[in-house]
Design brief:
Pfam families: Rhodanese (PF00581). This is Rhodanese-like protein. Keywords: Repeat. The chain is an alpha/beta fold. The protein folds into 2 domains: 115 residues, Rhodanese-like domain (Oxidized Rhodanese, domain 1), CATH 3.40.250.10; 108 residues, Oxidized Rhodanese, domain 1 (3-Layer(aba) Sandwich). It is 30% helix and 13% strand. The protein has 10 helices and 10 strands. The chain has a 5-stranded parallel sheet with strand order 1-5-4-2-3. Helix 9 links the parallel strand 9 and strand 10. Helix 4 crosses helix 9. The radius of gyration is 18 Å and the shape is globular. 41% of the residues are buried. The model has no long low-confidence stretch (mean pLDDT 95).
């Protein structure tokens, strides 16, 4: 697993005193305050970097809003940022995707979540002293970004791309893109450890769904939250041809894109 994308609790524990490593807790503020957090972590709740008004694309918060958020969190563009939540990493993965899209070079997902961390490492209720920065975002260009829109998805349907739907079975059966395969984002997580399954097991699991390195992969769900986790996992495994449909099925259906429905063997 590529440590430039996903890091273990032990990796982070060894760097708690490193001033260049900034830890971001994306749980609700009451969890951060009331339950405790990783030492040195700053609170950046999920809703603070998600905007339903489509400021940029999909539910991205907008360049200025994200820069202000990281300024207040004391993050500099050169920092290594590690994000975590307590939901197997799905909300933290959305932070990772957002930071990457706005040009932060080094942002990583904590393997596991707060529950996994707290089993073996110290936690605290003390809030760190935060010195605001003057963060300037540098968004990826359309050519650099993995995010794709309606037209690009329509074109990919005409190619040999594999469309990966990370939603629940009932959602998938109600409406899905033509030819899509269902891959529940939680399949990559070990229920006991709350961490990602071993790399070999992940590769086999993906291959069983037809998700292989030689295929063009297009990810979608409803509003691009769940695919964030799958996207980060694929990047950590070294998959390169992965597109992220930010508008997902919400945008697709709003633009009268073709969908199919019906029960499937799951």
């Amino acid at each position: 697993m590529d440590e430039s994308v996903v890091v273990s609790p032990d990796w982070l524990a060894a760097r708690l005193e490193d001033p260049q490593v900034r830890i971001v807790d994306v749980r609700d503020a009451w969890e951060y305050d009331g339950i405790g957090h990783v030492p040195g972590a700053v609170s950046v709740p999920f809703e603070s970097y998600r905007d339903e008004s489509d400021v940029d694309r999909g539910t991205l918060p907008g360049v200025d809003a994200f820069a202000e958020l990281l300024t207040e969190a004391g993050v500099s563009p050169s920092d290594t940022v590690v994000a975590y939540d307590d939901m197997h990493g799905v909300f933290a993965a959305r932070f990772v995707l957002t930071a990457l899209e706005y040009g932060h070079d080094d942002v990583r997902l904590l393997d596991g979540d707060y529950s996994a961390w707290s089993r073996e490492h110290e936690t605290t209720s003390d809030e760190p002293a935060i010195e605001p920065t003057d963060y300037e975002a540098d968004p990826l260009s359309r050519d650099e970004s993995p995010l794709v829109g309606f037209d690009a998805v329509a074109e990919a349907l005409e190619r040999d791309a594999i469309f990966v739907d990370t939603r629940e079975t009932h959602e998938f059966e109600e409406a899905r893109l033509p030819g899509a395969v269902r891959f529940d984002w939680r399949e990559v997580v070990d229920d006991e450890t709350r961490r990602l399954k071993p790399e070999a097991e992940l590769e086999e699991l993906l291959a069983d769904h037809g998700i292989t390195r030689d295929r063009e992969v297009v990810l979608y769900c409803n509003t691009a939250r769940r695919i964030s986790h799958t996207y980060v996992v694929l990047r950590a495994l070294g998959y390169e041809d992965v597109a992220f449909y930010e508008g997902s099925l919400t945008e697709w259906m709003a633009n009268d894109g073709e969908v199919v429905s019906g029960e499937v063997d799951d």
